[in-house]
Write a structure and sequence with these properties.
- This protein has 192 residues and is mostly helical.
- The relative contact order is 0.04.
- 78% of the residues lie in helices and 0% in strands.
- The termini are far apart.
Amino acid sequence: MSHPSRIPQHVPTGSQSRYTQAVDASHVYTNLLALGAPPISLDDFNRLYHGPFGELLLFMSTQIKGRKQVARDRYLIHQFRESHSQLPVRVPGEGTTVAPVQKCMAELSDAQRKADVLSVQLKASQADLEQTQSQATNLKQMLQDRRRATMLLGILQQRERVRISRFQEMIKMMEKLRDGIHDQGILVYLLR
């Protein structure tokens, strides 16, 4: 079940520039898809591709570069700089060459950026270490508390065993005493 498109239908007017009319909409559509535009049907794109918005889409398709193209362009720029940086350039009025100075400045700024990144990583690692040490201290304290509690429970258990054994001894003594009283009561009764 398909839903009707919410994209307005194209009504041909004279508002399109001659440039956007000359460029095929399917070519612009293909370029935009290659750049990572959200996929829509070609019919929907044709309805959008008119007027100032069509000119904008055309501009985007011709001027915006994809990641692969940008990577190629950066590589070409890098090669160009490398090939031209080997040629010494003399500054008028000075006996030094500019290329080694620029290279040193680039290396210095690169080293500073690396140092900044490493500094941030070091601070993050130190914060993690402090947090871990705090957790370790808390765990050690909990372990000591549990050991103390276990030791105290062991002492209480031992005292309870001693108390129970004393009660058992008292029960035995009371039974002997009762048996003795009972035996003497029988003896006294018989003697009378």
